[in-house]
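Hi everyone,

Forwarding the result from last night's run.
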Amino acid sequence: MSLRRMVLVGRTGAGKSTSGNTILARGAFRAAKSGSSVTKECWKKTREVAGREITLVDTPGMFDTDVPEQYLKQEISKCINMTAPGPHAIILVIQLGPFSEEERNSVEKIRALFGEEADKHTIVLFTRGDELTGTIEEYVSEVGDDLKEILSRCGGRYHVFNNKDIEDRNQVVELLEKVDAMVSANGGEFYTSDSYKEVDLMLKTKEAELRREYEKKLQEKERELESRFTEEKKKLQEKIEALTASEQEKEEKIKELERVNQRKMIEYKRYYEAKLREARLEAELTHINERKMMEIFTKLQTLQI
Protein backbone atom coordinates (compact mmCIF):
# COMPACT_ATOMS: atom_id res chain seq x y z
CA MET A 1 0.00 0.00 0.00
CA SER A 2 1.52 3.32 -1.08
CA LEU A 3 1.97 5.99 1.58
CA ARG A 4 0.97 9.57 0.90
CA ARG A 5 1.63 12.43 3.32
CA MET A 6 -0.49 15.41 2.34
CA VAL A 7 -1.01 18.82 3.94
CA LEU A 8 -4.02 21.08 3.38
CA VAL A 9 -3.14 24.78 3.28
CA GLY A 10 -5.07 27.94 2.45
CA ARG A 11 -6.82 30.87 4.04
CA THR A 12 -9.54 30.62 6.67
CA GLY A 13 -12.88 29.45 5.32
CA ALA A 14 -11.47 28.06 2.06
CA GLY A 15 -12.77 24.59 2.92
CA LYS A 16 -9.63 22.78 4.10
CA SER A 17 -11.26 20.79 6.91
CA THR A 18 -14.33 19.93 4.83
CA SER A 19 -12.09 18.77 1.97
CA GLY A 20 -10.11 16.67 4.44
CA ASN A 21 -13.33 15.02 5.56
CA THR A 22 -14.29 14.38 1.93
CA ILE A 23 -10.93 12.71 1.26
CA LEU A 24 -11.11 10.52 4.37
CA ALA A 25 -14.87 9.88 3.94
CA ARG A 26 -15.62 10.72 7.56
CA GLY A 27 -15.79 13.60 10.01
CA ALA A 28 -12.11 13.45 10.91
CA PHE A 29 -11.72 17.22 11.12
CA ARG A 30 -14.02 19.81 12.66
CA ALA A 31 -15.44 21.88 9.82
CA ALA A 32 -17.36 25.14 9.86
CA LYS A 33 -20.64 25.50 7.99
CA SER A 34 -19.81 28.98 6.71
CA GLY A 35 -16.77 31.02 5.77
CA SER A 36 -15.52 31.06 9.33
CA SER A 37 -13.05 28.58 10.79
CA VAL A 38 -13.20 26.18 13.71
CA THR A 39 -9.71 24.78 13.04
CA LYS A 40 -7.51 26.54 15.57
CA GLU A 41 -4.49 24.24 15.38
CA CYS A 42 -2.90 21.63 13.13
CA TRP A 43 -4.43 18.15 13.19
CA LYS A 44 -3.18 14.93 11.65
CA LYS A 45 -5.23 11.87 10.68
CA THR A 46 -4.21 8.64 8.94
CA ARG A 47 -6.68 6.48 7.01
CA GLU A 48 -6.72 3.96 4.16
CA VAL A 49 -8.27 5.58 1.10
CA ALA A 50 -8.51 4.03 -2.38
CA GLY A 51 -5.73 1.51 -1.72
CA ARG A 52 -3.38 4.11 -0.22
CA GLU A 53 -2.39 4.96 3.32
CA ILE A 54 -3.17 8.66 3.54
CA THR A 55 -1.71 10.82 6.28
CA LEU A 56 -3.53 14.13 6.08
CA VAL A 57 -2.60 17.28 8.00
CA ASP A 58 -5.22 20.01 8.32
CA THR A 59 -3.90 23.49 9.10
CA PRO A 60 -5.62 26.58 10.48
CA GLY A 61 -5.52 29.86 8.54
CA MET A 62 -2.01 30.53 9.83
CA PHE A 63 -1.37 33.47 7.53
CA ASP A 64 -4.60 35.38 7.99
CA THR A 65 -4.35 38.96 9.18
CA ASP A 66 -4.00 39.70 12.91
CA VAL A 67 -2.54 36.28 13.79
CA PRO A 68 -0.50 36.53 17.06
CA GLU A 69 3.21 35.81 16.56
CA GLN A 70 3.44 33.16 19.30
CA TYR A 71 0.45 31.29 17.86
CA LEU A 72 1.96 31.46 14.38
CA LYS A 73 5.29 30.06 15.63
CA GLN A 74 3.52 27.22 17.42
CA GLU A 75 1.42 26.18 14.43
CA ILE A 76 4.24 26.50 11.88
CA SER A 77 6.32 24.22 14.11
CA LYS A 78 3.50 21.67 14.39
CA CYS A 79 2.80 21.78 10.65
CA ILE A 80 6.43 21.00 9.80
CA ASN A 81 6.68 18.34 12.52
CA MET A 82 3.48 16.57 11.46
CA THR A 83 4.48 16.37 7.80
CA ALA A 84 8.15 15.39 8.38
CA PRO A 85 10.22 14.06 6.68
CA GLY A 86 8.20 15.99 4.09
CA PRO A 87 4.81 15.96 2.34
CA HIS A 88 4.22 14.13 -0.93
CA ALA A 89 1.59 16.72 -1.77
CA ILE A 90 0.80 20.24 -0.64
CA ILE A 91 -2.91 20.75 -1.31
CA LEU A 92 -3.55 24.48 -1.79
CA VAL A 93 -7.27 24.95 -1.11
CA ILE A 94 -8.97 27.89 -2.85
CA GLN A 95 -12.68 28.67 -3.10
CA LEU A 96 -14.28 29.17 -6.49
CA GLY A 97 -15.09 32.83 -6.99
CA PRO A 98 -13.22 36.13 -6.93
CA PHE A 99 -9.56 35.74 -5.94
CA SER A 100 -8.95 38.50 -3.41
CA GLU A 101 -5.74 40.32 -2.49
CA GLU A 102 -5.95 38.72 0.96
CA GLU A 103 -6.02 35.26 -0.62
CA ARG A 104 -3.06 36.10 -2.85
CA ASN A 105 -1.07 37.32 0.16
CA SER A 106 -1.93 34.17 2.08
CA VAL A 107 -0.68 32.02 -0.81
CA GLU A 108 2.58 34.00 -0.96
CA LYS A 109 3.17 33.45 2.75
CA ILE A 110 2.51 29.71 2.41
CA ARG A 111 5.03 29.65 -0.43
CA ALA A 112 7.56 31.50 1.72
CA LEU A 113 7.11 28.90 4.47
CA PHE A 114 7.69 25.86 2.27
CA GLY A 115 10.03 27.42 -0.30
CA GLU A 116 9.78 27.82 -4.07
CA GLU A 117 10.85 24.20 -4.65
CA ALA A 118 7.56 23.16 -3.04
CA ASP A 119 5.72 24.39 -6.16
CA LYS A 120 6.61 21.09 -7.84
CA HIS A 121 4.76 19.26 -5.07
CA THR A 122 1.69 21.52 -4.96
CA ILE A 123 -1.76 20.99 -6.47
CA VAL A 124 -4.57 23.54 -6.30
CA LEU A 125 -7.88 22.19 -4.98
CA PHE A 126 -10.90 24.35 -5.74
CA THR A 127 -13.88 23.98 -3.42
CA ARG A 128 -17.61 24.74 -3.85
CA GLY A 129 -17.69 22.67 -7.02
CA ASP A 130 -21.48 22.52 -6.66
CA GLU A 131 -21.55 26.20 -7.72
CA LEU A 132 -19.89 25.56 -11.09
CA THR A 133 -22.11 26.52 -14.03
CA GLY A 134 -19.78 24.96 -16.58
CA THR A 135 -16.69 22.72 -16.42
CA ILE A 136 -13.72 23.34 -14.15
CA GLU A 137 -11.56 23.69 -17.27
CA GLU A 138 -13.76 26.52 -18.51
CA TYR A 139 -13.59 28.19 -15.12
CA VAL A 140 -9.78 27.99 -14.98
CA SER A 141 -9.46 29.43 -18.48
CA GLU A 142 -11.27 32.58 -17.32
CA VAL A 143 -9.57 33.26 -13.95
CA GLY A 144 -7.56 36.45 -13.34
CA ASP A 145 -3.83 36.87 -13.85
CA ASP A 146 -2.93 36.41 -10.16
CA LEU A 147 -4.59 33.01 -9.96
CA LYS A 148 -3.27 32.00 -13.39
CA GLU A 149 0.25 32.73 -12.14
CA ILE A 150 -0.29 30.51 -9.09
CA LEU A 151 -1.64 27.71 -11.26
CA SER A 152 1.32 28.10 -13.60
CA ARG A 153 3.77 27.82 -10.69
CA CYS A 154 2.05 24.57 -9.69
CA GLY A 155 2.56 23.09 -13.13
CA GLY A 156 -1.07 23.68 -14.10
CA ARG A 157 -2.22 21.06 -11.59
CA TYR A 158 -5.70 21.57 -10.18
CA HIS A 159 -8.81 19.68 -9.11
CA VAL A 160 -12.29 20.55 -7.87
CA PHE A 161 -14.34 19.17 -4.97
CA ASN A 162 -18.04 19.28 -4.29
CA ASN A 163 -17.83 18.82 -0.53
CA LYS A 164 -21.61 18.66 -0.29
CA ASP A 165 -21.47 15.28 -2.02
CA ILE A 166 -19.07 13.27 0.15
CA GLU A 167 -20.50 10.07 -1.37
CA ASP A 168 -18.99 11.00 -4.74
CA ARG A 169 -15.80 9.00 -4.32
CA ASN A 170 -14.82 9.53 -7.97
CA GLN A 171 -13.68 13.06 -7.12
CA VAL A 172 -11.44 11.70 -4.37
CA VAL A 173 -9.94 8.91 -6.50
CA GLU A 174 -9.28 11.40 -9.30
CA LEU A 175 -7.48 13.76 -6.88
CA LEU A 176 -5.30 10.93 -5.58
CA GLU A 177 -4.51 9.86 -9.15
CA LYS A 178 -3.34 13.40 -9.86
CA VAL A 179 -1.25 13.33 -6.68
CA ASP A 180 0.30 10.01 -7.78
CA ALA A 181 1.11 11.48 -11.20
CA MET A 182 2.73 14.49 -9.52
CA VAL A 183 4.80 12.27 -7.22
CA SER A 184 5.93 10.18 -10.24
CA ALA A 185 6.92 13.36 -12.08
CA ASN A 186 9.04 14.23 -9.03
CA GLY A 187 10.89 10.93 -9.25
CA GLY A 188 8.70 9.27 -6.62
CA GLU A 189 10.07 11.61 -3.96
CA PHE A 190 8.30 13.73 -1.37
CA TYR A 191 9.09 17.40 -0.83
CA THR A 192 11.91 18.12 1.57
CA SER A 193 14.18 20.99 2.55
CA ASP A 194 16.91 21.83 5.06
CA SER A 195 14.18 22.66 7.58
CA TYR A 196 12.51 19.28 7.09
CA LYS A 197 15.81 17.39 7.27
CA GLU A 198 16.68 19.08 10.55
CA VAL A 199 13.21 18.48 11.95
CA ASP A 200 13.19 14.82 10.88
CA LEU A 201 16.51 14.26 12.67
CA MET A 202 15.19 16.08 15.75
CA LEU A 203 12.00 13.98 15.76
CA LYS A 204 13.88 10.70 15.39
CA THR A 205 16.20 11.70 18.25
CA LYS A 206 13.30 12.80 20.45
CA GLU A 207 11.31 9.66 19.64
CA ALA A 208 14.28 7.45 20.54
CA GLU A 209 14.70 9.35 23.84
CA LEU A 210 11.02 8.88 24.69
CA ARG A 211 11.17 5.18 23.85
CA ARG A 212 14.17 4.67 26.11
CA GLU A 213 12.44 6.61 28.86
CA TYR A 214 9.20 4.61 28.66
CA GLU A 215 10.98 1.27 28.38
CA LYS A 216 13.01 2.16 31.48
CA LYS A 217 9.87 3.21 33.36
CA LEU A 218 8.13 -0.04 32.42
CA GLN A 219 11.09 -2.12 33.63
CA GLU A 220 11.19 -0.14 36.88
CA LYS A 221 7.45 -0.63 37.36
CA GLU A 222 7.76 -4.39 36.71
CA ARG A 223 10.50 -4.67 39.34
CA GLU A 224 8.48 -2.57 41.77
CA LEU A 225 5.34 -4.68 41.32
CA GLU A 226 7.29 -7.93 41.62
CA SER A 227 8.96 -6.73 44.83
CA ARG A 228 5.64 -5.54 46.26
CA PHE A 229 3.96 -8.81 45.30
CA THR A 230 6.67 -10.89 46.97
CA GLU A 231 6.32 -8.84 50.16
CA GLU A 232 2.49 -8.97 50.18
CA LYS A 233 2.51 -12.70 49.44
CA LYS A 234 4.85 -13.34 52.37
CA LYS A 235 2.62 -11.32 54.73
CA LEU A 236 -0.48 -13.08 53.44
CA GLN A 237 1.08 -16.50 53.91
CA GLU A 238 2.00 -15.64 57.50
CA LYS A 239 -1.53 -14.40 58.11
CA ILE A 240 -3.38 -17.38 56.63
CA GLU A 241 -1.18 -19.89 58.41
CA ALA A 242 -2.86 -18.78 61.62
CA LEU A 243 -6.33 -19.38 60.14
CA THR A 244 -8.27 -22.57 60.54
CA ALA A 245 -9.30 -22.45 56.88
CA SER A 246 -8.71 -25.45 54.66
CA GLU A 247 -5.65 -25.70 52.42
CA GLN A 248 -7.88 -25.07 49.41
CA GLU A 249 -9.15 -21.80 50.90
CA LYS A 250 -5.59 -20.74 51.68
CA GLU A 251 -4.51 -21.46 48.10
CA GLU A 252 -7.45 -19.42 46.76
CA LYS A 253 -6.31 -16.38 48.77
CA ILE A 254 -2.79 -16.70 47.28
CA LYS A 255 -4.23 -17.11 43.77
CA GLU A 256 -6.44 -14.03 44.19
CA LEU A 257 -3.38 -11.99 45.20
CA GLU A 258 -1.58 -13.30 42.11
CA ARG A 259 -4.54 -12.38 39.88
CA VAL A 260 -4.67 -8.83 41.26
CA ASN A 261 -0.92 -8.44 40.74
CA GLN A 262 -1.20 -9.80 37.20
CA ARG A 263 -4.00 -7.35 36.35
CA LYS A 264 -1.84 -4.48 37.60
CA MET A 265 1.08 -5.68 35.50
CA ILE A 266 -1.11 -6.01 32.39
CA GLU A 267 -2.44 -2.47 32.84
CA TYR A 268 1.03 -0.96 33.27
CA LYS A 269 2.25 -2.84 30.18
CA ARG A 270 -0.76 -1.63 28.20
CA TYR A 271 -0.16 1.95 29.34
CA TYR A 272 3.55 2.07 28.50
CA GLU A 273 3.15 0.13 25.25
CA ALA A 274 0.59 2.77 24.20
CA LYS A 275 3.09 5.48 25.15
CA LEU A 276 5.73 3.74 23.04
CA ARG A 277 3.38 3.60 20.05
CA GLU A 278 2.58 7.28 20.47
CA ALA A 279 6.18 8.37 20.97
CA ARG A 280 6.31 9.83 17.46
CA LEU A 281 3.13 11.84 18.03
CA GLU A 282 4.51 13.13 21.32
CA ALA A 283 7.78 14.06 19.65
CA GLU A 284 5.84 16.07 17.05
CA LEU A 285 4.73 18.46 19.80
CA THR A 286 8.35 19.55 20.25
CA HIS A 287 8.96 23.04 18.83
CA ILE A 288 11.56 23.42 16.12
CA ASN A 289 14.63 25.36 17.26
CA GLU A 290 14.52 29.14 17.54
CA ARG A 291 17.20 29.68 14.87
CA LYS A 292 15.19 27.85 12.24
CA MET A 293 12.01 29.62 13.31
CA MET A 294 13.73 33.02 12.94
CA GLU A 295 14.82 32.05 9.41
CA ILE A 296 11.19 31.35 8.52
CA PHE A 297 9.99 34.59 10.10
CA THR A 298 12.65 36.58 8.21
CA LYS A 299 11.31 35.17 4.95
CA LEU A 300 7.76 36.11 5.89
CA GLN A 301 8.75 39.63 6.93
CA THR A 302 10.52 40.31 3.62
CA LEU A 303 7.16 39.87 1.87
CA GLN A 304 5.83 42.98 3.67
CA ILE A 305 2.25 41.77 3.25
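The mean pLDDT is 85.

Cheers,
N.
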